Every structure is written in structure tokens, then in C-alpha cells.
Automatic annotation (TrEMBL):
It comes from Sphingobacterium allocomposti. It comes from the Bacteria. Belongs to the flavoredoxin family. This is Flavin reductase (DIM6/NTAB) family NADH-FMN oxidoreductase RutF. Residues 11-156 form the Flavin reductase like domain. Keywords: Flavoprotein.
Length: 183
């Protein structure tokens, strides 16, 4: 085995789906690209992610305590990368990238119509925000777009490369200890 520099460890553990996070602040919607996130628990569904003062969306999240986590399909991969390469302080990203905002039910941040799924979230814990820029949010409503022809998600590998979901193997019958989450 070869050694891997410690600053590259993220490339081994982070291949979760790349997501888009929307916020609404002072009448302005914004979108940011995010790769650093994780599920914390199932019920209630808690998600943790890193968002810091270097992100234009930070102030909106801190002040409103609301966001939407949108999951783009592989057909939006290039747009998602491009969204991450500009600032909402200078660009109306919905307009620039021709994405449609849709009203959420429980938060002011918008859904993104073109995405596979949208999760409305409220911040429930900021204990690690000052030290690690880590927010914990609770999913308060989830939406899926099952009518999209492209249903594959993609994963950021931490170095500008991405992997795309392919075939799915169903092992639900083997999940005997966790049957309640396989329904």
C-alpha cells in the first residue's frame, strides 16, 4: 500500500452526493454547491454540514436558520460545479444557471424544480459552528421528482473528479437488524 497525504483523506470518505443548498435572505434567493455533509440520525432526520463565513450563504443561514438541500441529477453536474465557482454576492445563480425556484412549504428558502429531490431544513444545533463551521439541521419536509428521466446522482471525490451512480444492487432482505429503514 502507498501512503496518502492526510490532507487527501477527504477523497476517501467524502464521495457522498454533491448537493445544492438554497437560502433566502432579505428577499434574495441563493444557491451554493456543497460536498461536506452527512446524515446524523434517522428519526427525526438530522443532517450535518460545513458552511463557513467564506460562503455567501453563511449569513443567510445564521440569520434565518433555514435552507433547502437539493440533490441534482447527473444531468446538472456541470451546472452544480459552475454554481460553486461563483459567489451569490455577485451573481443571481437561479437566473445565471437557468434554474427554477419553487416555493417550499415550511421554509422561505426555495426548492429547485430541476433537482431529483429537495429537503426543507431548519437549523437545530450550532454547538460546533464557531469551532468547526458545522451546522446540524432537521429535515422538515422532503420532495422527490420521480418524473425526471435522469435519476442518477453523482459524488464529489474531493479533487475535481466525480463518480456517477450506476447499477443498484438490492440487499434489503439481508438488512435484518435494520428492517425499519428498508421499507
Amino acid at each position: 500500500m502507498d501512503t496518502l497525504p492526510l490532507n487527501k483523506v477527504v477523497r476517501l470518505l467524502e464521495p457522498g452526493p454533491l448537493v445544492l443548498v438554497t437560502t433566502a435572505h432579505h428577499g434574495r434567493n441563493n444557491i451554493m454547491t456543497m460536498g461536506f455533509h452527512m446524515m446524523v440520525q434517522h428519526d427525526p432526520p438530522l443532517i450535518a454540514f460545513v458552511l463557513g463565513p467564506w460562503d455567501y450563504s453563511y449569513k443567510a443561514l445564521v440569520e434565518t436558520k433555514e435552507c433547502v438541500i437539493a440533490i441534482p441529477g447527473v444531468d446538472l453536474m456541470e451546472k452544480a460545479v459552475d454554481i460553486g465557482n461563483c459567489s451569490g454576492a455577485e451573481v443571481d445563480k437561479f437566473k445565471e444557471f437557468k434554474l427554477d425556484a419553487s416555493d417550499a412549504e415550511n421554509v422561505k428558502a426555495p426548492l429547485i424544480k430541476q433537482c431529483l429531490a429537495n429537503i426543507e431544513c431548519r437549523v437545530v444545533n450550532t454547538d460546533l459552528t464557531k469551532k468547526y463551521n458545522l451546522f446540524v439541521v432537521e429535515a422538515v419536509k422532503a420532495w422527490v421528482n420521480s418524473e425526471r428521466s435522469e435519476q442518477r446522482i453523482f459524488h464529489h471525490k474531493g479533487d475535481g473528479t466525480f463518480s456517477v451512480d450506476g447499477r443498484t444492487k438490492d440487499l434489503k432482505a439481508r438488512m435484518t437488524k435494520w428492517k425499519e429503514i428498508t421499507k
